[in-house]
Design goal:
The chain is built from six helices and ten strands. With 227 residues, the chain is an alpha/beta fold. The two termini are 28 Å apart.
Length: 227
């Protein structure tokens, strides 16, 4: 089976003149459907740049980024927007919810931005993440873990092939962190979503199928004890 997400020899340079920084340095990465890949590393090592390039938000200086059989370099701005809308889901720190919307409207929101190929039912997704009884609540009525669950459901409602997750446990205690990353692993496996999770939380890495470390813009595999 070919990779759902593939980065080949990707380099990303940021800045100008003497201020140029190599954010990504000849990075290779493959993520298959149903796989959860954790990425760890110090602040400033390039993890956020990796998500931006994989999510079609930033164009690399050189190298190839493919989603299944689609080469992102071949697309214009409209095509990249369609890829982000239809094929990629994003999970942000603390859920990043809209204060005025109920949980079910948060999840439904991506479906209002344009056509998607494989939409999922918002109410069913809230049930999958354990939030079906709180569909009418707003973010200020939720705990941090609950907000993150709603954010995960929102990212999955378009039926994406790729899920990109940025520090999902940053504001959570250990018990809630384990629950959230366990949920991500289950959703990835059950719905064949290729998932990349950037995290500083080493306690949750046993949920991942693979773990990579980013240092100075380069990726290398890490052995993580299974529990």
């Amino acid at each position: 089976m070919s990779a759902a997400l593939a980065l080949r020899d990707v380099t990303l340079l940021l800045g100008d003149g003497e201020e140029v920084v190599t954010a990504l340095d000849h990075v290779d990465l493959e993520v298959r459907r149903g796989e959860l890949v954790g990425v760890v590393g110090p602040s400033g090592s390039g993890k956020s740049s990796l998500l931006a390039v994989a999510g079609a938000l930033t164009t690399p200086t050189s190298g190839s980024v493919r989603i299944a059989d689609l080469e992102l370099a071949d697309l214009d701005r409209r095509g990249l927007t369609a890829v982000r809308r239809e094929r990629i889901g994003f999970v942000f720190q603390s859920g990043n919810l809209v204060p005025a919307l109920t949980c079910v409207d948060q999840v439904r929101l991506p479906l209002t931005f344009g056509r998607v190929r494989h939409p999922r039912d918002p109410h069913h997704l809230l049930a999958e993440v354990g939030m079906e009884t709180k569909a009418a609540r707003r973010p200020h009525q939720l705990s941090g873990g609950e907000r993150q669950r709603v954010g995960i459901a929102r990212a999955l409602v378009t039926g994406p092939e790729i899920l990109l997750v940025d520090e999902p446990t940053a504001a959570l205690d250990r018990e809630r962190s384990q629950a959230i990353v366990g949920l991500l692993a289950r959703e990835a496996a059950e719905h064949d979503v290729a998932t990349v999770m950037v995290t500083h939380d080493h306690d949750v890495l046993h949920h991942c199928d693979r773990v990579l470390e980013m240092v100075d813009g380069r990726l290398a595999p890490v052995d993580v004890p299974r529990v």
